[in-house]
């Protein structure tokens, strides 16, 4: 289930920094997730359950590798809702139910280029020492799906306390999407995360409901990280 370390993407179409990351994960029945996946993808199960993650963070230095980052346009809050899947090629990766972002140009480019389910949202990310508050509410949707999260980050996990599931939920090197009816994969390289303990102080969200998922039961499994640098590879058609 754990993806092996990946060599750096040789030809990247985008370079990004993911900062002040929080990982929230809930376990779902397979039958709740499978109908929401496109043909060709199957849930990557853990003890007959599927993990669904909500990940708010600060997107920074977003740019093609051959261009400098731009003020305002290259830095903005983002939150994605995702699950873990197996492709018909036998690979493992991520499928996004939604990606909320605070920059309309970034939303438009990602939707047009890779058909990723980006939503333009009113968002904020406020930091005060070890406390981070994330807020978001979608534009142009009748119910304005959104969230509010306050989380306190703690000390780094000692490596011996991290298990396979901690690495699996935070270390994925491929995303899947559907473009013009064809299943596409995109490799994403990043170095290992520095994973920290974290505590949720307040959470309200309806992103899961907007995606067609039941309300999660119980509190989430939580990790935080200062962040990593990433390189996004070129899309490939899976035949």
From TrEMBL:
This is YqjF family protein. PANTHER family: DUF2071 DOMAIN-CONTAINING PROTEIN (PTHR39186:SF1), DUF2071 FAMILY PROTEIN (PTHR39186). The lineage of its organism: Bacteria, Bacillati, Actinomycetota, Actinomycetes, Micromonosporales. It comes from the Bacteria.
